[in-house]
Every structure is written in structure tokens, then in C-alpha cells.
Amino acid sequence: MKKILIATNNKGKAKDFESLFGPYGFEVQTLNDLEQDIDVEETGVTFEENAVLKAETVSKLLGIMVIADDSGLEIDKLQGAPGVYSARYAGEAKNDEANIDKVLSELQGVPEEERAARFRCVLAVAGPGIETVTFSGSCEGTILEERRGSNGFGYDPIFYSPEKGRAMAELSPQEKGQISHRGAALRQLEARLPQLLDALGGQQ
Ligand SMILES: O=c1nc[nH]c2c1ncn2[C@H]1C[C@H](O)[C@@H](COP(=O)(O)OP(=O)(O)OP(=O)(O)O)O1
Ligand SMILES: [Mg+2]
């Protein structure tokens, strides 16, 4: 089976990639599947910088083509926060529950029409002998007043999709892929994948 390494330690992201790449016959692997511990420090100030940093660092280390994902939530009322700091919003420990609590308390009393937000995702593909390329996607919604649903990961329980009429965490992985920032970025990447794999001489 063709394998694709995603330079992430986030198991929730990995599931999104599986439901999107599975139908194309790719087995998705992540940094959690490797014997060595790899954790790239995210020193960039944009999603794009961090995605490129993660993809190029891991690709150079292992000598293979990899895809990295940097993503996050932008809330208009909070001037775009948490943004690139989404994973670390409530502290370095990267705790989804604490991050959600922090957002909910900051938006306490803010009416629905002022709770607009979007998820953003930038994917970077890096590999030996190819120029690093990036693809991006976004997904518009609003922030709920309380959690709904138990699917997905991260901020999914408080992100309402007007397109689906449900919280992101109430969607199946397939439904999420149809509307998500990651789904949008991945569809662009898919269009370029044959070319990228060709440039690598059929590595995968
Ligand atoms: O579809 C999503 N549904 C809900 N929340 C999401 C989503 N996509 C990103 N997010 C949130 C999770 C985390 O708070 C941050 C990503 O941070 P980000 O640095 O890209 O990922 P991460 O540190 O969890 O894993 P890694 O860097 O190893 O890929 O945005
Ligand atoms: Mg990260």
C-alpha cells in the first residue's frame, strides 16, 4: 500500500487525513508511528511559516517526502486570536479542554451575531529534490456558547457550521471533510499529488 507520512503528533488531525486519503489508497502514518520522538518547535508567526518549518525539518531528518499541517481558529471578536497560538492558547501543555474553556469565558455575554470565526489550515509538502509547496483552506462558522457533540478534536465542540446546521463535533469524519479547512486544503493538494509523487521518482 502507498504510504504517506504526515509530520504531526496530533492524532485528531491524523484521523482527518485518513478519511480524506483512505479512498485514494494511501496508508496514513504520523510521527507517533516512528520510533524516534520528533517535535518541531513552532517559531513562525503565520500558519504558512509553521507548516513549512514542520514539513522541511521532518523531511530533511528522514530523507523522504512528508506533509505537514498548521492550523487554528481565528475569532473576529478577539482580533483573530487564538490564531497560530491555538494549540497553546491556555498554556504550553496543549490542552483542548482548557483552550475551549478560555475561549468560552472570553466570549461570555457576546451575542451570536458577534461570534463569527473561521478555521484555517495550511498544508506544506516537502521532499528531497522538490520545491516545498503549500496549500490552504478555511471554514467559516460561529462560536457556540457551550460544547456540542463528541466527534473530531480541538475546538470542534464549540464551532458551529452554518452550512451543516450542526457543531463540527456533531459531524461524521466524512461530513467534516466536505466543509472543513483541512478538507479544502487537501482537495487542492490532491490535484497536485500525482505530479509531486512523480518528481520523487515514485518514492511512495
Ligand atoms: O479541524 C479542527 N478542529 C478543531 N480544532 C482544530 C482543527 N484544526 C486545528 N484545530 C486546532 C487544534 C489546535 O489547538 C490547533 C492546531 O495547532 P497545530 O500546531 O497546527 O497542531 P498541533 O500542535 O495540535 O499538532 P502538530 O503541530 O504536531 O501537527 O488548532
Ligand atoms: Mg503544533
UniProtKB/TrEMBL annotation:
<keyword id="KW-0546">Nucleotide metabolism</keyword>
<comment type="similarity">
    <text>Belongs to the HAM1 NTPase family.</text>
</comment>
<feature type="binding site">
    <location>
        <begin position="153"/>
        <end position="156"/>
    </location>
    <ligand>
        <name>substrate</name>
    </ligand>
</feature>
<dbReference type="InterPro" id="IPR002637">
    <property type="entry name" value="RdgB/HAM1"/>
</dbReference>
<dbReference type="InterPro" id="IPR020922">
    <property type="entry name" value="dITP/XTP_pyrophosphatase"/>
</dbReference>
<protein>
    <recommendedName>
        <fullName>dITP/XTP pyrophosphatase</fullName>
        <ecNumber>3.6.1.66</ecNumber>
    </recommendedName>
</protein>
<feature type="binding site">
    <location>
        <begin position="181"/>
        <end position="182"/>
    </location>
    <ligand>
        <name>substrate</name>
    </ligand>
</feature>
<dbReference type="Pfam" id="PF01725">
    <property type="entry name" value="Ham1p_like"/>
</dbReference>
<keyword id="KW-0547">Nucleotide-binding</keyword>
<keyword id="KW-0460">Magnesium</keyword>
<comment type="function">
    <text>Pyrophosphatase that catalyzes the hydrolysis of nucleoside triphosphates to their monophosphate derivatives, with a high preference for the non-canonical purine nucleotides XTP (xanthosine triphosphate), dITP (deoxyinosine triphosphate) and ITP. Seems to function as a house-cleaning enzyme that removes non-canonical purine nucleotides from the nucleotide pool, thus preventing their incorporation into DNA/RNA and avoiding chromosomal lesions.</text>
</comment>
<feature type="binding site">
    <location>
        <position position="70"/>
    </location>
    <ligand>
        <name>Mg(2+)</name>
    </ligand>
</feature>
<keyword id="KW-0479">Metal-binding</keyword>
<feature type="active site" description="Proton acceptor">
    <location>
        <position position="70"/>
    </location>
</feature>
<keyword id="KW-0378">Hydrolase</keyword>
<dbReference type="InterPro" id="IPR029001">
    <property type="entry name" value="ITPase-like_fam"/>
</dbReference>
<feature type="binding site">
    <location>
        <position position="176"/>
    </location>
    <ligand>
        <name>substrate</name>
    </ligand>
</feature>
<dbReference type="GO" id="GO:0036220">
    <property type="term" value="F:ITP diphosphatase activity"/>
</dbReference>
<feature type="binding site">
    <location>
        <position position="71"/>
    </location>
    <ligand>
        <name>substrate</name>
    </ligand>
</feature>
<feature type="binding site">
    <location>
        <begin position="8"/>
        <end position="13"/>
    </location>
    <ligand>
        <name>substrate</name>
    </ligand>
</feature>
<comment type="subunit">
    <text>Homodimer.</text>
</comment>
<feature type="binding site">
    <location>
        <position position="41"/>
    </location>
    <ligand>
        <name>Mg(2+)</name>
    </ligand>
</feature>
